[in-house]
Amino acid sequence: MSQQESRHRLAIYPGSFDPVTNGHLDIALRGARLFDELIIAVYAFPIKNLLFSVDERVALWQEVLANEGLNNVRVEKYTGLTIEYARAIGAQAIIKGLRSPNDFDAEFQQGLMNRKLAPDIETVCFLTNLDQLFVSSSLIKEVASLGGDVADMLPASVAQALLNKQSETRK
After folding, report:
1. Is 8 a catalytic residue?
2. pLDDT greater than 60 at residue 1
3. Segment 53-86, tens digit of pLDDT
4. Residue 132 among known ligand-binding residues
5. Residues 99, 115, 145, 165: which is the catalytic one?
6. pTM value?
7. CA–CA separation, 45 and 55 (whole Å)
8. Which CATH class is domain 3-170?
9. H/E element holding 139?
10. Where are the domains of the chain?
């Protein structure tokens, strides 16, 4: 076996994951099949309106993954540049999910910047499943806040956590 063949293939799947959707889970499962190890990298301080704290988002992922029985996936929180985090842990790839041309444009630009900063780390893009095409965490939070049923777009534990969080914020 050559040195390249014996190399441990580590990828990260970064995001804010506020909350984790079935689309996120699908990308993670597909990434776990391609890499020896996958780290779900939960970004602590995105420039977004967050509903869940970083520790809650990590815990939600851990609960969802426990139901999948994957032994090559773990969840970590991080801060700073994603590419620097990837480099610091020795990742060879960054996994991204694409739902739309807008996603492609943003990920293309970010991927090129990452390639400039760290040419040895690849960006690997997965196309979403058609049934997840319109799903985004932001849209799910908005629909849920207005009383819409989003349970079939989320893992069961996340759907329950979202309901609990929504009722807490209404108090």
Report:
1. no
2. no
3. 999 999 999 999 998 888 999 999 999 999 999 9
4. yes
5. 99
6. 0.91
7. 11
8. alpha beta
9. helix 137-145
10. 3-170
